[in-house]
Amino acid sequence: MQEKQATIYLDNASTTSLDSKVLEAMLPYFKEQFGNASSIHALGQTARVAVEKAREQVALFLNCKESEVYFTPSATFSDNLAILGVVRVAQKKGIKPHIITNVIEHPAVLEPIKHLEKTGQIEATFLPVYQEGIVKVEDVERAIKSNTCLVSIMQANNEIGTIQPIDEIAQVIGNFRGPKKYPLFHTDAVQAANYLDLNVEKLGVDLLTLSGHKIYGPKGIGVLYVKQSTLLEPIVFGGHQEAGLIPGTENVANIVGLGKAIELVKSSKLKVQSLRKLRDKLIDGILKEIPQTFLNGSREQRLANNANISFKGVEGEALLILLDQAGIAVSTGSACSSGSLEASHVLMALDCGKERAHSAVRFSLSKNTIEKEIDYVLNVLPKMVEHLRKISGFKV
Ligand code: PLP
Q: Catalytic residue positions?
């Protein structure tokens, strides 16, 4: 059977389309400029120059030094390196490190922390996020202990789009830390990059994660910002690349693509206001036209492109399939948790119950979303929900 191509793509939190300017920038590095950035000859040096230009583009975006930007194979790798790398340094000091995170982090943060906890290597605190999906700064303050080596709180959530008070958390950590090195502060800014200010100085973070494919760049490339003098142990061995922290031949084309994508974020940020309007039209339209629908996560502290809505009496997966048949691509939970029948850990953390978690659909818009597409969704969605409620016997 031939796969039907989605025509209205509202799954941008899973991945974004590649910007044509990004592709254009990348193409030479697949063909004529195929050099290894570590080679001394001219081809190698051309690749090196391209890698360093991308580093400059990222540094400009984050307001940091170029030497603080590390290219990684993915944001998942960046998150793992931030956590495991910090823990390994702290362990050498002979203490059992403590990490603070929260229950709605991406698995790329939660899983390494859970693994370290399960194997007895660290103590961990998983803070709640309450009904709004937001971490309370006072909870962070209360949780910090003398052996806390790392606080890892994402800037914005991938499923419900809620935005965390990163600068306030940094303040609390800074007050506790004083002249000492710990606790360090890491934020996963993968979903925030298109919409929020990622000036690391203003945010007050020591470590920050980015991903190429959420910002109209290529898949398989990430960034870890590491503030100068922050000690990290490598987690992979076998090469000198990225100051020995991320060994392996640089993926030059992807690095160039990420650099270009980062550069373009600035211009797409100018459109955030109109994107927010489209998102609000979608949210308000659904909540008004379809009874028993609920927005998941804070309405105010929310990314401009995210609408995560539960449709009471409807299985999210069933609605996803009907929408897909109508040429509309959405997601239930995050892409990474799709395929498993377990309710999303993020929605379950909001304490809204299993049924509401299973009936949630995530619409994530992009800089390319147009009003006509939102109108189309609002036109076809009520009938789909009505149909699914009818066959499941749910009465409004
Ligand atoms: N962190 C967050 C918040 C994400 O949304 C994702 C991807 O869904 C990742 C990390 C992992 O990114 P990558 O696909 O680059 O490994």
A: 336
As for ligand 1, residues whose beta carbon falls within 6 Å of it are 74-76, 79, 106, 108, 154, 158, 188, 190-191, 211, 222, 335-336
Q: What is the CA(290)–ligand 1 centre distance, in A?
A: 32
Q: Are residues 254 and 355 in the same domain?
A: no
Together in a domain, 304 and 225: no
Give the domain extent around 259. 20-267
Please choose from 111, 153, 209, 214 the residue to mutate so as to test ligand 1's pocket, defined by most ligand atoms within 8 A of CB. 214
Shared-domain flag, residues 261 and 333 = no
Which residues have a Cβ under 8 Å from the Cβ of 351 and sit 6 or more positions away?
130, 131
Residue 211 CA to ligand 1 centre (angstroms): 7
pLDDT tens track of the chain, all 396 residues? 445 555 899 999 999 999 999 999 999 999 999 999 999 999 999 999 999 999 999 999 999 999 999 999 999 999 999 999 999 999 998 889 999 999 999 999 999 999 999 999 999 999 999 999 999 999 999 999 999 999 999 999 999 999 999 999 999 999 999 888 999 999 999 999 999 999 999 999 999 999 999 999 999 999 999 999 999 999 999 999 999 999 999 999 999 999 999 999 988 888 899 999 999 999 999 999 999 999 999 999 999 999 999 999 999 999 999 999 999 999 996 444 455 568 899 999 998 899 999 999 999 999 999 999 999 999 999 999 999 999 998 888
- Rounded distance from Cα 190 to ligand 1 centre (Å): 6
CATH of the domain at 71: 3.40.640.10
- Tell me: do 276 and 306 sit in the same domain: yes
* CB burial string 121-139: b at 16+ within 10 A, e below: ebebbbbebeebbbbbbeb
Pick from 218, 246, 267: which residue ends a domain? Answer: 267
E strand segments, the chain: 8-9, 69-72, 98-102, 123-127, 148-152, 184-188, 207-211, 222-226, 293-295, 306-311, 328-329, 360-364
Strand partners, 71: 223
CA–CA dist 331, 81 (Å, integer)? 28
Domain count, the chain: 2
